[in-house]
Write a structure and sequence with these properties.
Blueprint lengths: L2 E7 L7 H8 L3 E5 L2 E6 L3 H7 L16 E5 L10 H8 L5
Antiparallel strand pairs: 1-3, 1-4, 2-3
Length: 94
């Protein structure tokens, strides 16, 4: 089942991070330089590992792109570019 995740890095990402996210999770939206939402069937741990937010396998070592990955529950509010709201509504569970 597809889940929407928000990926937020702790600091400025490497220059190629956005292209890494896009190639790993083509169904994505870039919120800011260091924040993305992605839609995938992958479990949250895989998302974090694939994007270097978590070290594999145990997460004891500092990963290359420290940050957090949150699973979104379909509720959202705020102010942002209208394309974000369109993207999120397109991934809202039926």
């Amino acid at each position: 089942m597809e889940t929407v995740y928000c990926v937020i890095l702790s600091s400025t990402p490497p220059e190629d991070f956005a292209s890494t996210v896009r190639s790993t999770y083509p169904d994505m939206y870039r919120l800011s330089e260091s924040a993305f939402v992605v839609a995938t069937d992958d479990p949250i741990r895989n998302v974090a590992t694939q994007l270097g937010v978590r070290s594999d396998p145990d997460g004891d070592e500092r990963p290359p792109n420290p940050g957090v990955v949150f699973s979104l529950n379909g509720s959202f509010t705020g102010w942002h570019d209208p394309r974000l709201w369109t993207w999120l509504r397109g991934h809202r569970a039926s």
